[in-house]
Amino acid sequence: MRAPPRACGCPERGVIAELRAAGSAVWVTVTTPDEATLAASSGAEGLCVQGPEAGAHRGTFSAARGAGAPGPPLRRLLADVAAVTGVPLIAAGAIMSRQDVTGALAAGAVAVQCGTAFLRCPESGAHPLHKAALAGPRFTGTAVTWAFTGRPARGLVNRFMLDHPDAPPGYPEVHFATRPLRAAAAAAGDTGRMNLWAGEGYRTATTRPAGEVVALLSGGTG
Length: 222
Prior knowledge:
The protein contains eight helices and seven strands. With 222 residues, the protein is of the alpha/beta class.
């Protein structure tokens, strides 16, 4: 009997082989050179290299407390991963401008992955309070927390994160336990108890349409 799927991590070699045999391209998110080596040796065709600057859940293979410790910045991480693997790399983490894109490509990536850059776009499904928090003066920084889901994730520092600095690495149990609390907070307009995921570059997110953001990232005028 095959083991149940994990929330994050490297798929087993057999699973990757089955996916590739079915015609799927398999890319694995990694946060360290060791994870990259494991994923590449397991058959991944490419890697999404997630720097510590990235918002929302860390793609680390482990949810343990030490897994959220800051590592090298994205560009250095790209070089470190490229040194131990020969597969294509996608860069992720605080990529908010054309300069960020060109820097990631120069560091060895073949493409970039953006999230926070689109959070305030009209097409984004983020909660309106979340969008407003990204631009408001109340929230002045981000941090990695286990408090909302039991997995390390970067978001705007708020009261809930500060009140639960020692939250256990217990995904998905913590996620299920806090979900009604988060829903109630959103309904009450209480951003102090919502999970406000964001990467370190959140202050430069704009309300421009997604197509214009893509144009700006790719070197167009938007």
